């Protein structure tokens, strides 16, 4: 495989490296990944995260194992195990299906080229979404975003953050409100880091402040990413996205989801069929990061911790894809089922 280098993932001189997102924003520490067990562990711990990136990371590992001479049977088993690492982002399943089809049709040696295509394609998809989305942003727009959707979640410039970065690059004078994104603080830790890298003016807020900002007329538009978009336009994204959408409708703030075609699941009829990952109680009982782990609730406090929620299509102003911005009318007419 040729060398592939992005902000958060790299394949260099035959070694696969993952930027440890646990250590951000304080340290940029890279971890070498040499086995399926290590990749599954990193995906589950969110050291590598974001819907497109986990699929790309798993694909690079499979190709790496093929180059090390693993048998087709072992590679099939590896793909099956990686596929199960997290349940909600359909990108992971799509990538594993693409790699398996290549393995079966062309053999193990073709996996390197397939993984390269998956990586390079994501870079291009991000640029396409960025251009589609930036065209919608008026000068001076104040954008609110949730979770992290940038170069730490994709191989390229990102989905919602890709649009933000492009609008900024075009000199539109935007300002971004960053939801901190409890419980794992992808906004506070990762999106702030990315805004700083991109030199986009931003303000960090607690998730619970978003409604008040909208009521005060300080938010002109909301941009979020997605882990899976169903055929009817309902979509799963980081928990908290649904309440943003409800609040946006109440305050008449345009609400856009930004995602590549690899996040659309035409086989999934609606949001009720999207599998939602449940995570550990400890994530809600306290917080962890580069500083270690802190718990503030009683040790045995019962917890409900779904990692994602589903936003119904009826609350979405537009679906910013890599090919077009779809309207509610187009989605109702079945535009997502034909992707
Ligand atoms: O649990 P995470 O951090 O992997 O969740 C990520 C998100 O919810 C993103 O918004 C989504 O993957 C789209 S990013 C391109």
TrEMBL record:
<dbReference type="InterPro" id="IPR037171">
    <property type="entry name" value="NagB/RpiA_transferase-like"/>
</dbReference>
<feature type="binding site">
    <location>
        <begin position="237"/>
        <end position="238"/>
    </location>
    <ligand>
        <name>substrate</name>
    </ligand>
</feature>
<dbReference type="InterPro" id="IPR042529">
    <property type="entry name" value="IF_2B-like_C"/>
</dbReference>
<feature type="binding site">
    <location>
        <position position="86"/>
    </location>
    <ligand>
        <name>substrate</name>
    </ligand>
</feature>
<dbReference type="Pfam" id="PF01008">
    <property type="entry name" value="IF-2B"/>
</dbReference>
<keyword id="KW-0486">Methionine biosynthesis</keyword>
<feature type="binding site">
    <location>
        <begin position="49"/>
        <end position="51"/>
    </location>
    <ligand>
        <name>substrate</name>
    </ligand>
</feature>
<comment type="similarity">
    <text>Belongs to the EIF-2B alpha/beta/delta subunits family. MtnA subfamily.</text>
</comment>
<dbReference type="InterPro" id="IPR005251">
    <property type="entry name" value="IF-M1Pi"/>
</dbReference>
<feature type="binding site">
    <location>
        <position position="186"/>
    </location>
    <ligand>
        <name>substrate</name>
    </ligand>
</feature>
<comment type="function">
    <text>Catalyzes the interconversion of methylthioribose-1-phosphate (MTR-1-P) into methylthioribulose-1-phosphate (MTRu-1-P).</text>
</comment>
<keyword id="KW-0413">Isomerase</keyword>
<dbReference type="InterPro" id="IPR027363">
    <property type="entry name" value="M1Pi_N"/>
</dbReference>
<dbReference type="InterPro" id="IPR011559">
    <property type="entry name" value="Initiation_fac_2B_a/b/d"/>
</dbReference>
<dbReference type="InterPro" id="IPR000649">
    <property type="entry name" value="IF-2B-related"/>
</dbReference>
<protein>
    <recommendedName>
        <fullName>Methylthioribose-1-phosphate isomerase</fullName>
        <ecNumber>5.3.1.23</ecNumber>
    </recommendedName>
</protein>
<comment type="pathway">
    <text>Amino-acid biosynthesis; L-methionine biosynthesis via salvage pathway; L-methionine from S-methyl-5-thio-alpha-D-ribose 1-phosphate: step 1/6.</text>
</comment>
<feature type="active site" description="Proton donor">
    <location>
        <position position="227"/>
    </location>
</feature>
<feature type="site" description="Transition state stabilizer">
    <location>
        <position position="147"/>
    </location>
</feature>
<dbReference type="GO" id="GO:0046523">
    <property type="term" value="F:S-methyl-5-thioribose-1-phosphate isomerase activity"/>
</dbReference>
<keyword id="KW-0028">Amino-acid biosynthesis</keyword>
């Amino acid at each position: 495989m040729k060398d592939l280098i992005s902000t958060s993932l790299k394949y260099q001189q035959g070694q696969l490296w993952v930027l440890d997102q646990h250590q951000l924003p304080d340290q940029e520490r890279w971890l070498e990944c040499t086995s399926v067990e290590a990749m599954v562990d990193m995906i589950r711990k969110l050291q590598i995260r974001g819907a497109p990136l986990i699929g790309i990371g798993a694909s690079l590992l499979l190709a790496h194992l093929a180059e090390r001479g693993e048998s087709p049977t072992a590679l099939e088993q590896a793909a099956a195990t990686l596929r199960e690492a997290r349940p909600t982002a359909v990108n992971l399943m799509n990538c594993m299906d693409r790699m398996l089809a290549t393995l079966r049709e062309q053999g193990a040696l073709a996996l390197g080229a397939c993984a390269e295509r998956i990586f390079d394609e994501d870079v291009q998809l991000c640029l396409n979404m960025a251009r589609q989305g930036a065209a919608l942003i008026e000068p001076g727009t104040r954008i609110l975003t949730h979770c992290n959707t940038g170069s730490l979640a994709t191989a390229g410039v990102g989905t919602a953050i890709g649009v933000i970065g492009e609008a900024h690059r075009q000199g539109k004078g935007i300002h971004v409100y960053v939801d901190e994104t409890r419980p794992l603080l992808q906004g506070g830790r990762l999106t702030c880091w990315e805004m700083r890298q991109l030199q986009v003016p931003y303000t960090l807020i607690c998730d619970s402040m978003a409604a008040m900002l909208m009521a005060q007329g300080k938010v002109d538009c909301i941009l979020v990413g997605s882990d899976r978009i169903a055929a009817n336009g309902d979509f799963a994204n980081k928990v908290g996205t649904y309440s943003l959408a409800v609040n946006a409708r109440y305050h008449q703030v345009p609400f856009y989801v930004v995602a590549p075609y690899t996040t659309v699941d035409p086989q999934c009829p609606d949001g009720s069929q999207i599998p939602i990952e449940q995570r550990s109680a400890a994530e809600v009982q306290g917080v962890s990061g580069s500083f270690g782990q802190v718990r503030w609730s009683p040790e045995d406090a019962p917890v409900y911790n779904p990692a994602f929620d589903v936003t119904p299509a009826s609350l979405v102003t537009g679906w910013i894809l890599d090919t077009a911005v779809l309207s509610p009318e187009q989605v109702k007419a079945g535009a997502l089922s034909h992707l």
